[in-house]
Amino acid sequence: MINQLINNEKIRAGGLQSLGENRILTVEKDMKPEFSAQTHMVWKIKNIHHMHSALMQEVLAGYGLHFGQPRILFTVDEMTGATQKELAERLQITPASLAMSLKRLQKAGFLEKDVNSKDLRCNKIRLTKKGRQAITRCHQKLAELDARMFGDFSPLELEQFQDFIRRIETNLGNAEVTEHDC
Question: Of the candidates 133, 144, 128, 132, which has an alpha carbon nearest to the alpha carbon of residue 59?
Fold first, then answer.
């Protein structure tokens, strides 16, 4: 690293920026490039996800639920009587991961397993009364949170945003990592 006295200028990848006064800067031999606008957008999306998750967790805690559990409950409701394997496929998670979540939800009284006496591996999963009440309340509260998040978007903007999200999903779905030398 080289210490340089730069008169009113800060060296940055892609150009110079005025600092307004004399300063001693530490400059690396191989300067790091600035991050792209796209990278900053991805970081913003991640920040939004964290903010939404924190607010959502506050809502869920009031019902005795944790972040990933409503999605499981909503899927069980949608696929009443499905097996653990079918639910795992729909949720795109491993059966082992789902088994742990189902066990917790069952212990908390949100789910029941109907055991097939002929095939113990083929348990049918369904909501209890408590589970149905929880998803009804959660659905309402989460809809309120999402309405707040998109409150000042016009219907056209929401449609465009939804299209952008679909395109991003498609682009990432088609992406392949070719270099692993980071």
Answer: 144
Rounded CA separation 131/111 (Å): 6
Q: What is the pTM for the complete model shown?
A: 0.62
pLDDT the model gives residue 31: 59
| Sole residue written with tokens 């999306």 | 45
Task: Give the chain's residues under pLDDT 50.
Answer: 1-27
Do 46 and 61 meet the contact criterion of CB atoms below 8 Å apart? Answer: no
Buried b (16+ CB within 10 A) or exposed e, 79-114: eeebbbeebbeebeeeeeebeebbeebeebebbbee
**CA count, 13 A, side-chain hemisphere, 26:** 1
The DSSP result for 86-144, as a single string, is HHHHHHTS-HHHHHHHHHHHHHTTSEEEE--SS-TT-PEEEE-HHHHHHHHHHHHHHHH
From the list 76, 91, 59, 58, the residue with the least C-alpha distance to 130 is 76
State pLDDT tens for residues 59-112.
889 889 988 899 999 999 999 889 889 999 999 999 899 999 999 999 999 999
